Each structure stands twice: as structure tokens, then as C-alpha cells.
Amino acid sequence: MKYAFTFIFLTALYLSTAAQSRTATVEYQKINRQAVVSEIPFPEKTIRDAIDNKMQQMGYKGKDSKGYTVYKGVRMPELGNDSYDLYFMADRKSRKEKENSNLTLMISKGFDSFIADSTDSKVMDNAKNYLDSIKNIIAAYDLEQQIIAQEDAVKKADKKSTSLIDDGVSLEKKRKNIEQDIADNKKNQTNQLAEIEKQKQILEVLRGKRKS
Prior knowledge:
This protein has one domain: TATA-Binding Protein (2-Layer Sandwich), CATH 3.30.310. It contains three helices and six strands; from the N terminus they run αββαββββα. The protein has helices at about 1-15, 45-55, 115-210, and strands at about 20-30, 30-40, 65, 70-75, 85-90, 100-110. Strands 1-2-6-5-4-3 form a six-stranded antiparallel β-sheet. The chain is rod-shaped, with a radius of gyration of 38 Å. It starts with a helix and ends with a helix.
């Protein structure tokens, strides 16, 4: 419990001190476009899964496009009053930093109408705030995945323990049966030795009846 609290506290501290989201120029379909980029302290798969999980909860399904996952017609008050096509891409920050990723977000009002500071600075500012806040969503998702994985580990450990207990009961029963078999075998050996002596005595009596 203490470890879990420490982990959550350190994660929250890291997120609160992480670099703020910024605008950047990215290439999409051979055209330079303005996007919002943020450094996220999680692997790219965790980020993609967390965003997809959140979007599905909101009723939106993503589609791959040139390395981006696109969610079309998204209505999100955090960004603005219109509906937007959101283009997300998460990639590892560097080869050495497997646990850190860059999250890129491009926003379009439909088709090729991508938003930039020059066309809608308010939405771009909102997008920066949104990416800053999405870090907490990803952290919460990652924690839930860890809890689910740990619950599964507990279930597997419990199942194995139950199996070992059942095996122990079965082995104990076999042990008692073997001990009984050994006891019966010893008794039968004793009885058989007595039978041999009896038969030998009868043999001697019969031999004594031979005529000299």
C-alpha cells in the first residue's frame, strides 16, 4: 500500500513538473502543418491505448492514417464549439528513453482544413491545455491497467494455491492407501511364512509314513 501511494505521488509530481505542451511543425501528406506536441512519461503504446479508450468512451472510433490515429467529428468543449477531426501520434522520444514519448496532435475542421495559430489561435491554445491535462488521463489509465494485471496475477496465484491444496489432499490419500497396502503386505508375508511351515510339517509327516 505504501509503495502504491509513493508511485502515485511521484507520478503526479512528475506530471506537474513536466514540460508544457508546445506548437511544432510536422509533415503530413507531404505538407508542413502546425501541431501541438507534448512530452508524456509513458511508452507510446500506453498513450495510444489510453487515448483510444477515452475516445471510445466518448463514442468515437479511431482510424489509422499515415502514422496517426484519426478521430473524426469530435465534439469537445475543451477545444472549442465546433466539431473537429483529431490526429494523434505517439512515438518514443529516443532509443534510450523507452518510457518517454512525444504526443503530437493536429486538429482539422474537416478534410484538409487544418488549424494553426494563424487561423485559430484560441483552439491551438486550448489544444495545448488539453494535451497538458491528457497526461493525467494517461496516468489514470496506466494505473488501472496495472491494477487489472495485478488482479489477474492474484487470481492466477490463488488458482495455483487451490490446485496445490487439491494435489496435497490427493497425495495424502494416496499415502494412506500405500501405507495400508504396506501393512497388508507385511501381514500377508507373515501369514504366508506360517503357511509354508504348515505345509512343510505336513510334508514331513507324509515322508515319515514311507515304508522303510
